[in-house]
Amino acid sequence: MSWNGYRPLAGYYDVMLDADGSSRPASRHLLEHLEILGPQGLSSVQRSAELSLLNQGITFTVYSDARGTEKIFPLDVVPRIVTHSEWQRLEAGLVQRLQALNLFLRDVYGAQRILKDGIIPTDLVVNSAHFCRELVGVDVPAGVFIHVSGTDLIQNESGEFLVLEDNLRVPSGVSYVLENRIVMSRVLPDLFERYRVSPVDQYPQLLLDGLRSVALRDDPEIAVLTPGIYNSAYFEHSFLSAQMGVRLVEGRDLVVDDDVLYMKTTSGLQRVDVLYRRVDDAFLDPIVFRTDSLLGVPGLMHAYRAGNLVLANAPGAGVVDDKAMYAYVPRVIRYYLDQEPLLAQVPTYLCREPKDRDYVLAHLEELVLKPTDGSGGYGLLVGCHATRDELAAARAAVRSAPESFIAQPIQRLSTLPTLVGGSEPRLAPRHIDLRPFAVYGARDEISVLKGGLTRVALREGSLVVNSSQGGGSKDTWVLRDEGEHA
Amino acid sequence: MLSRIARGLYGIGRSIERAQNVIRVLEVNHKMNLERDRESEQSIWLAIAEAFHTQSDPPSESILYQELVLSFDHPHAVRACIRSARDQGRAMRDHISEEMWLHLNGTYLSLSELTFADILREGRSEFNRRIETFCDAFHGLADDTMIHGPAWRFLRIGKFLERASMICRILDIKRKVLALAPDDEGRPIDVHQWQALLRSLSGYEPYRRAYDARIMPSRVLEFVLQRADFPRSLGHAVQQVAKELRGLNSDRAAQIELHQAVEVFVEQLRMLDAHELLRSGSLESHVPLLSRRCEEISSRMEASFFVSVRPASAPILPIPHAGLVPQQ
Lengths: 486, 328
Description:
Chain A has 486 residues and is an alpha+beta fold. Chain A has helices at residues 28-56, 84-108, 113-116, 122-126, 174-187, 189-194, 203-213, 234-244, 300-305, 318-321, 323-326, 329-337, 354-362, 388-400; strands spanning 59-61, 70-72, 75-82, 148-150, 152-155, 161-165, 222-225, 247-249, 254-257, 260-265, 268-271, 274-277, 310-312, 344-345, 349-350, 367-371, 381-382, 405-409, 415-420, 426-435, 437-440, 446-448, 453-457, 471-478. Chain A has a domain at 347-409: Dna Ligase, domain 1, CATH 3.30.1490.270. Chain A contains 14 helices and 24 strands. With 328 residues, chain B is an all-alpha fold. Chains A and B meet through strand 8, strand 9, strand 10 and helix 9 of A and helix 1 of B.
């Protein structure tokens, strides 16, 4: 690109440019637009976007600040374009995967055939911290466990999409998808017109329909349970409940009486039929789970087991998005659907297995080591970036508790031009991933939102994209048809 | 609406009104101080201190400012009230307008590092005026930027109930010095006290416009207790509470009873004979009755709107050990 001298990184797949620096077909309009804008123009678009976000209060709470300071979740205005055919393959793979995972959960909390047939090690499942004994034998409404999911995908050096991680407990980020889109259409309207981008604004309706479909009563009362304003994702809880037109409640607004859940309102107690809970399993019910939790409701699990309440997502779903289970998911897909996985995953070494463990210890510098019960990117070791001491400590940890670790070859995450340089703006390649969101309703109806959160690691060379660790986001444009970009 | 939200909005209404009233009382008495002779200074501050239950003895001005303006703990302190309102506002940002939030948060932040020296540097009256203006603007924003639905009504009920309580409290401060025969306009100090009463309620100018410059105790009392078109009278405040309760359209027994109790209070105030109260010397015994009515209404608000009655039920016991493998 002439004003920039943008060069894709050698050996990585760049979404906009191919290896010899020419635009991929679908990104042609984008490249032309960036040329026309130039560095100052793009900077000014970026500033408008940031101002928009700030004014709308699209923030997340930084835990460490006592005043609960809110920061904007950074949006970079260069969008990620996904072609129609790319998306179709991705979506089919996702739907297949989610179906299989839901069947797995139904089985594991029911007849446990997959365990009895020896496909998955039983101890891996039942000893998992996320395995919820109170769910065993429960008739889960409409058989749906994973009403909301956000699967993390990456593209490897050939541009192939791989599943990096399933998020089936309390996945967040969809509100940024929706708000980013509003901001983008405001600051880059001309570019929007050149492309035909699939809309994302129907997500709240999709979610509402999904929650209604699994309800046990007609005209169900739906509520969103939030831990409260100090939770880092509070904005999203408030946003989604407002968009769906349902009530936002905290634990202290709820009470269970005679195995029925109620909200405390100025008109008295009002029954709740479906609770979209953005509170982790452990904090849901102090009688059954963590007794020190103030975020949940005593008796919630009683109401659930009595068949008087729908919880979305179902408790215990975390047993399958545990990193240790990840390596077995292809087997899960084959077992329940008798199909080969349509979406590949990252090759994974399970340190609990001696052969894998030896490999991991010998090749740690080339691997990403992940603890099986970690989340948010903490506790991760990227072999090629680690110091000698860190590597030694990691090896010791693996030797002492091998079942707590998995490792994966360091993936060459795809890149996308991102605005950097502050007062001297320029575009530089930064690593990205993709989190599409799906709603699972009754009768196995799975709706995948055509778009998703593209997260970008803003620091040069960094592969860590989480918001809590210096990541940002980009809008994801799924093209509605092949058009002229074959 | 959720009880917690209703209570929060009600609390914001009370907190902002309280801050404004406290600041106004301080301002009036500061002005009176300047016009006073030495011996009486003590008694004025003492009276205020008594009314707001501070621990000082005897309080100096700077201590009083510490306790009633700058404290973060004292329930009547201006800064404590504004912080409380701001914290509640943050928890209910979805229910107040963005303008209200920015206004509230902005003022809260500007007060967070304030010291008494800062206030003196700014000028007491300038500072007092700034706080009063903030509170007026907040209510103005509430009226003009919120939907006039239940959220707005709870906010207003809080504001007017606090106003009613404060009027009773101010009357309490003044009742000993105000127990005079209605037509006794004798010594200058008494006129001064009646004037101060009016000023404490931003009522001096309105009074003069309604009547004339002559301070007649019975007229003042009537103005302060009954005058329906004077926004800071007790009668007006209670009528507004009744109006908002009506707007809430309750169908629960406790709420209906509360509404009726408020309407009765409205009537009682309407039937008061200020002239007779003063003549018979029963003002001093009547004022605590008014305070009690306000308190009763406040606790009924709590009980009828903010607390849900739970039907009696069996205690919830832990789930017995669930088996790993379901029974065949």
